[in-house]
Amino acid sequence: MARRPRSSTPLDTELADLTPELRWREWMGRVEAVIFAAPEPVGRAALARVVGRDCNLDLLIADIRAELRGRPYELVAVAGGWQHRTKTGFADAIRAASGLGAQVRPLSHTEGLVLMAIGYFQPITRAELGQFFGKEVSRDLIGSLRASGFIAAGPRSPVPGAPYTYVTTQGFLSHFGFESLRELPDREALEDAGLLDTAKLLAGNFPALATLGDDGEGRGEWCGAEDDDEDARA
Q1: Is the peptide bond between 123 and the residue preceding it cis, with omega within 30 degrees of 0?
Q2: What's the pLDDT tens digit per position in 21-59?
Q3: pTM score > 0.70 for this model?
Q4: DSSP per-residue string spanning 46-101
Q5: Checking DSSP bridges between strand 124-125 and strand 151-156, what pairing results, if any?
Q6: Which residue intervals of the chain are DSSP H helices?
Q7: Using CA atoms, how far apart are residues 206 and 109, in angstroms rounded to an integer?
Q8: How many CB atoms within 10 Å of residue 97?
Q9: Is 134 exposed, middle or buried (0-12, 13-18, 19+ CB in 10 A)?
Q10: Cβ atoms within 10 A of the Cβ of 218, count?
């Protein structure tokens, strides 16, 4: 069966023939459809291609969110864009239905500490992480975090040997529900509260990053990953 040829007609974004109310509803439908269909957060530039030049995307998103109140899913700003996500209160039901509960494990305490350090002090090398903790951080641990999609290689450090540095990824932001790194808990506030200081960190007495959310509750569980040999050699 032959494929239907794609339409060459450009998308009418201005919708000048519609009343203001109908135009706004159509824009809302387009934006929600694009976000719903995308596997990753959708940025402002992509959404702007389906609405008119005078459309205020922030107000449009606010109206979509208002319509989703009371639903088991919501529209969230994350990783520099927007994404539909089920509310955390339904996590157990989703795991029970999908049968994936047994495949999910929390990040280990050591992994959480290393990821926290990378999040706050990136770009940072493995050797610098070792100096930070007072003991070597293994290549296997770094490889596991990379395979999980939470960190990636950053620019090479300007020291002898030019080792790779490590930085957090969009996947890190997406997993924990941060729109950008600016949403990480403020370091000075954590220090003032006695939660972040070198002595506690070296003693391994810092809470894993998974527990640090706006409401003090975890933003989600960490998924385990197998070691990535190529990443571990970096």
Answers
A1: yes
A2: 999 999 999 999 999 999 889 999 999 999 999 999 999
A3: no
A4: HHHTTS-TT--HHHHHHHHHHHTTTSSEEEEEETTEEEEEE-GGGHHHHHHHHT-G
A5: unpaired
A6: 20-37, 44-48, 57-67, 91-98, 109-121, 126-133, 139-147, 170-176, 187-192, 198-202, 229-233
A7: 9
A8: 9
A9: exposed
A10: 16
